[in-house]
Amino acid sequence: MDSVITTAAKEINRDELEKLKRSATQKALFRRRAGKFALVIVNLAMSIFVLLPLLYAVSIAFMPSSELFTTEMNLIPGNPTLENFRQAMVKIPLNRFIVNSFFVAGCITFGQILSCSLAAFSFSFLDFKGKNLLFMVVMATMMIPGEATIISNYLTVSGLHWLDSYKVLIIPYLTSAMGIFLFRQFYKSFPISLYESARIDGCSNLRFIYSILIPLTKSAIGAMAVYTFINAWNMYMWPLLVTGSDRMRTVQIGIGMLDSVDSQSISMMIAGVVMIIIPSISVFIAGQRQLIRGMFSGAVKG
Amino acid sequence: MNIKTFVKKAGPYVYMVPAMAVFAVFLFFPFFKTIYLSLYKTNKMGQAKLYVGLLNYADLLNSPSFFNSLLVTAIFVVIVVSVSMLLGLIAAVLCSKTFPGIRIFSTAYALPMAIASSSAAMIFKIMLHPSIGIVNKILGFHINWISDPKYALACVALLTAWLNSGINFLYFSAGLSNIDETIYERASVDGANSIQRFFFLTLPGLSPIMFYTLVVNIIQAFQSFGQVKVLTQGGPGESTNLIVYSIYRDAFFNYRFGSAAAQSVLLFLIIMILTLCMFRLEKKGVSY
Amino acid sequence: MASLSFVNVCKTYKNGLTVVKDFNLDIKDREFLILVGPSGCGKSTTLRMIAGLEDITSGELWIDGQLMNMTSPQSRDLSMVFQSYALYPHLTVYQNMAFGLKVHKVPKDEIEKRVGRAAEILHISHLLDRKPSALSGGQKQRVAIGSVIVRQPKAYLMDEPLSNLDAKLRSQMRVELAKIHRELGATIIYVTHDQVEAMTLGTRIVVMNSGVIQQAASPNDIYENPVNKFVAGFIGSPSMNFFPVWVARREEKICLEFGKNKLIANEICSKRLVEDGYVGRRVYLGIRPEDFHEEGPEEQKILFDVEMKEVLGAEILFHGRINREEICVRLSPNVKAEPGERLPVYVDMDRIKLFDMDTEQNIIYV
Predict the structure, then answer these.
(1) How many angstroms away from the CA of C159 is the closest CA of chain A?
(2) What torsion, rounded to 10 degrees, do the Cα atoms A111, A115, A117, A123 define?
(3) Distance from CA of A271 to the nearest CA of B (A)
(4) Which chains have 3+ CB pairs within 8 A of B?
(5) CATH topology of domain B55-284
(6) Which residue spans traverse the membrane (chain B) (predicted)?
(7) CB contact, 8 Å: A28 with chain C?
(8) Is the same domain home to A96 and A15?
(9) Are residues C107 and C180 in the same domain?
């Protein structure tokens, strides 16, 4: 029972049919490939635009300062050199700053993970009076902007003679409402029976946290670690206020010591900036998948 | 109540102690102390010396400098939020369909979120340098951008927008991936081309996340400090004297902690009111 | 409405998996054609190839005499109901239904007219201002169907539209769909895994398995004259019983023997079995549960052990074993037999089917 269509199709010369098919296919495939190609090109342009400041900085950092002051557009260093980096390390105690920042950021990250996971554990698995109220209070802290507290905090720590030390940089940041929220969301996805069966088995709370909960929370911990480390590394206003000596400065403040506008210093300054950007960018690139998954695990909604 | 029951009842609270202690000392206490301070005039050490009631507030509301800060901050926030959300949106849309190399591009677009405001500001300082900066070289001008009251604010704003575009890219990418794929298929069969699909499906699909992103962006924009300190120090001629910077200056250069505290409180109120208004508006907006 | 033609269509994914093989089919104008088969048989993929949502790896797809392999979905002038309904969540029911018309630049009053009429047919006029999140499953499904019938495309495509509904709603919607088909005079291409739906709705059924068309025929043909064991077993509920039997010649009669049971084949069957050389070999005997009787001649009797009985009111289904093979028999409520007993039943030898053991083809296929 051949339909009209197939008979008509068979009437067309087989060759012509093949030609028709091939040209249609080719055109469509071309359009599709061209589309993908255009997408790549546009993305390339856009990402160069977005990365321009960084690429520019890297280029200047490797450029000998003599090449800087020309009127032509020089984007690629003619004689790349490591001199700027060396000078930056020499001119200011960059080593010390980097060590300080690593130590401070590391402690803050560790401390936040610890305090937030403990608090979130309490909120998720335990029952106690005022639980909901206390949780709302914690969430409310997210509404308080830094400016509302920074002056008083400064006065507090200066009264305690904590200025210019590690503790003044670390202790105020040992917890975060966002961290508690993140962990709590994560814990909510575990069945309560996980906790109950551990208790029945005679497991103490601490043991439960240490041997069962924490291993299961690895991805949330990873996300938080990346986020907290980067933010701690990038802190500016607070370290500016509370540290003053070369011994205690962190990288973001310390790098300001290279800030000036004569040609030799510019290359040095940019080289310094590039050096202190590398750790945060590396942590970001290495942990971005963790970070993104952690940030959006709660199905962000309006 | 014996020891055992006490320990049992106290247990849950114990886990909260580290976090709550930090909140109490460094968040709640200073918050109230700031309000307290704003009602006094202080000495150079920050001790409240003279009770003046709402005088600090009255002074602020009568000072042209404060209103200038408000205006400058408002313009700043508008530029930052609109540009950074636009950048983030464009980047997210460009990365919505997979293509070779998408991973690398996604990383690139999100990268600005890992960069400190002060570091970025130093780079921008050189980019905007009148003679050797790349901006002047490409555009062919010789403008000293950050020393010109006409352009300084825009420069700081664009820098901040760049910094915030990374996180917006992530938010919008998440929003895009939350849109059900099959409605695009249905729209195709219904006859819609890609432009129509973008305007009728993608943009409305993004509206829930857009609200959230907007709120987050605004709050963050209000807290911009590092860029101002490094790039313009509030100048030239107070054209970039954002409220946060003005607070810093008042407190740590002029030692007028009382007045600075009052500004902090006002800033807090502004952000609160804005956020509440936005939540009200959202209820009336696109609902699902 | 339009006619479609598949010529040697194959679909292979990049990883080498071939999901549709050598698909040849002509779909005529105004047919209600149903693609039916188990999960993964390629029926949804075939439908999506018609819509343009999947590429055709090789072969040709003709719609109304035009080669459509590479045409984009939006230019094919088709309309599709998705299994998940795919309603636009931010639009009201009215706007959902109007969307396709709006895109095709239909004037506003015409849109109003058509949406109003479709809403009436489907009893959703009172829901026009609601958003999809405020609808029940059945209502969503009607909106999805409504969105499709307001347009006048070349054909309507439906991908398992009833599978997410409860049984009662499903049978209601089956009636509605049949009505719509009649009233609209539409060409409908419908995918389902439910053979009851296929049999009741379709004018023609295409049974698929593992990407290959097993049989394309009217419901009656498929039921009476299945081309192979798969089709015979897939269509019909409860499904056909299969027993491996020996074909033996006893005193000039052809007998089908299994265990202690011996059935004598009728003329037609005997002739085919002899002609095609099946004597002395084994074949599959297929008997539908409804083709057993309570009484009959001795030579059509078989005995089986009742294991379970399902009383359905107008009939009883007896499940049991015969020769270690499972058997299901449908009889009238008069029959009294309990689990554990042996029940004799009589096979309607004019209605049996015989299948080759190796090829599983129907030996007495017409």
Answers:
(1) 25
(2) -170
(3) 10
(4) A, C
(5) MetI-like fold (1.10.3720)
(6) 12-32, 70-95, 107-128, 151-177, 198-222, 260-279
(7) yes
(8) no
(9) yes
User: How close C356 gets to chain B, by Cα (Å)?
Assistant: 44
C89/B189 Cβ within 8 A: no
Are the Cβ atoms of A288 and B123 closer than 8 angstroms? no
| Residue A49 in domain | yes
The confidence band for B74, taking pLDDT boundaries of 50, 70 and 90, is: very high
Statement to judge: residues A236 and A190 lie in one domain: yes
Which stretches of chain C sit within 8 Å of chain A by CB? 3-5, 7, 26, 28, 60, 62, 64-65, 67, 69-70
The minimal CB distance from A3 to the residues C3, C69, C70 is found for C3
pLDDT tens digits along C299-311:
888 888 999 999 9
DSSP string, A170-198: HGGGS--HHHHHHHHHHHHTS-HHHHHHH
- Considering Cα of A49, then A54, then A56, then A62, what sign does the dihedral take? negative
pLDDT along chain A (302 residues), means of 10: 50 70 79 86 91 91 79 73 85 88 94 92 86 86 83 89 90 91 87 86 83 85 92 92 88 84 78 92 91 68 30
Q: Where are the beta strands (DSSP E) in C13-99?
A: 18-27, 32-36, 58-63, 66-67, 79-81
In which domain, by residue range, is A56 found? 4-61
Q: Are residues C175 and C259 in the same domain?
A: no
Looking up residue C257, the CATH number of its domain turns out to be: 2.40.50.140
Quote the CA–CA distance of B166 and A230 in Å, as a whole number.
Answer: 14
With CB atoms and an 8 Å threshold, state whether C86 touches B196: no
CB spacing of A302 vs B208 below 8 angstroms: yes
Copy the structure tokens of residue B100.
Answer: 């070779």
Same domain? For C56 and C139 the reply is yes
For residue C341, give how far its alpha carbon lies from the nearest alpha carbon of chain A (Å). Answer: 48
Domain boundary among C166, C200, C226: C226
Expressed as residue numbers, the domain containing C346 is 241-356
Q: Chain C contact for B187, CB < 8 A?
A: yes
> What is the pLDDT at residue B132?
78
Indicate whether C215 and C258 sit together in one domain.
no
**Over 90: is that where the pLDDT of C192 sits?**
yes
- A117 in the same domain as A52: no
Same domain, C150 and C283: no
Say yes or no for a CB contact (<8 Å) between C62 and A9. Answer: yes
The answer to ipTM > 0.85 is: yes
